[in-house]
Amino acid sequence: MKRILIIFAHPGYHRSHANRAMLRGLKGLEDVKVHDLYQHYPNMFIDVAREQRMLRDYDIIVFQHPIYWYSCPAILKEWMEQVLEYGYAFGPEGNALKHKYLLAAVTTGGSAASYSTTGHNHHPITDYLLPIQQSGLMCGMRWLPPFVVYGYHSVNDPDYLKMKGQQYRRLLTALRDEEFTPQQLHNATYLTDLLKEL
Question: Which Pfam families match (predicted)?
Fold first, then answer.
């Protein structure tokens, strides 16, 4: 059984429908910890030593956040710059995160159709996640297919949001319990592609 740490970054959590539904879906899930960066560091002064100690105890690291201007919220970028430092996360002696898994669990204002070569955003969401993916690879981490909730600006259906929260819980449970083979994880574009294999 693997332990999962969710690095959660949302500056307007009280206004969020999609991210709240995702976190509600994880209530009571054993070996899954949610670490809210804006709650712990409202002034963005990150306790690097504390964060590095915490990372040591987990096998799967999840970056959960909304997509803002095709990137992550500012505090997550600050966290990456401060915590994933040379000598700790990369460089000749920087192997603290080696072989841990990295998952992006993101929400977008745009629809799935808008994130395509023919859509409004001109690229799939996976293209916009490349900086996070490459950062993880530089740290020796294993990239997992992302979990994406599209169209949060237009979603008002509580049943749909509850379903997405249940999907998130089921997929994280499967990752925790090692229900997927390395080949399944490698072949999937999105984590939800694997639902039919459960």
Answer: Flavodoxin_2
